[in-house]
Write a structure and sequence with these properties.
The mean pLDDT is 89. The chain is mainly β. The chain is elongated, with a radius of gyration of 21 Å. It has a 4-stranded antiparallel beta sheet with strand order 1-2-3-4, with no helix packed on it. Strands 5-6-7-8 form a 4-stranded antiparallel beta sheet, with no helix packed on it. A 4-stranded antiparallel beta sheet has the order 9-10-11-12, with no helix packed on it. A hairpin with a 2-residue loop joins strand 1 and strand 2.
């Protein structure tokens, strides 16, 4: 048994053959010989609950419970991709894993968010499109590069290695799709209900476009 003082520990991780403990409101601790020491560069995290850590681009990617992701590059600690703050504004993050070229962020209240290495949002998997519920307790990579997620209610398997991604609008808002064109940050869809923008899992109706749409063409 190695004590680490009057600290509320959360989880332990092995990063580059070193053992770390994430804490609630006490930053990050590292095992040094026969005791744990506070990691000075984690000082900005002392007001947060640190949930998860992973090797990333020669440094460490860190997930906090309510304040998004941080990156330590070996010199300094900074928020990772500030423009993603809105993605995490109301999320409770539980864990993260890096699988090939994907950063998979498991949440308590909105399933699994997937980003590419540059930080661009790629996919979201939650109860709307197949998960049994929105609480991702753990993630596991199998030998075929598939991702298994342990949920409050059972297990789900996600084929991140598959180049085909399915979108299923269970609400019926979208209707039957007849035409699709690329948009700068998503897709424009024409259906028997009108024109819609699809960005990730967010579906937005183009006002006054009601009615059957057979074809969309980009002009200019």
């Amino acid at each position: 048994v190695i004590p680490f003082g009057n600290v509320s520990g959360v989880y332990s991780f092995i990063i580059k053959d070193e053992v770390y403990i994430t804490t609630r409101n006490n930053g990050i601790l590292k095992l040094v010989k026969d005791h744990f020491e506070f990691v000075e560069w984690s000082t900005p995290l002392k007001d947060f609950t640190v949930q998860s850590m992973a090797n990333f681009k020669g440094g460490i990617l860190i997930a906090t419970q309510l304040k998004g992701l941080y990156y330590y590059d070996g010199q300094s600690l900074k928020p990772w991709q500030r423009e993603l703050t809105s993605q995490f504004e109301f999320l409770e993050i539980n864990n993260l894993i890096i699988l090939n070229d994907f950063i998979c962020v498991g949440t308590i209240n909105n399933g699994l968010l997937v980003f590419d290495i540059s930080g661009s949002f790629k996919y979201i998997f939650n109860k709307k499109n197949g998960l049994a519920n929105n609480t991702v307790l753990r993630q596991f990579e199998d030998k075929d590069d598939n991702l298994w997620v342990a949920l409050d209610n059972g297990l789900s398997k996600i084929h991140l290695s598959n180049q085909v991604y399915g979108y299923n609008d269970k609400s019926g808002t979208l209707g039957t799709v007849y035409t699709i064109i690329d948009d700068t940050d998503g897709l424009v869809l024409g259906s028997n209900h009108g024109v819609f923008y699809l960005r990730g899992e967010e579906l937005e109706f183009l006002k006054s476009s009601n009615g059957q749409v057979w074809n969309l063409t980009r002009v200019g």
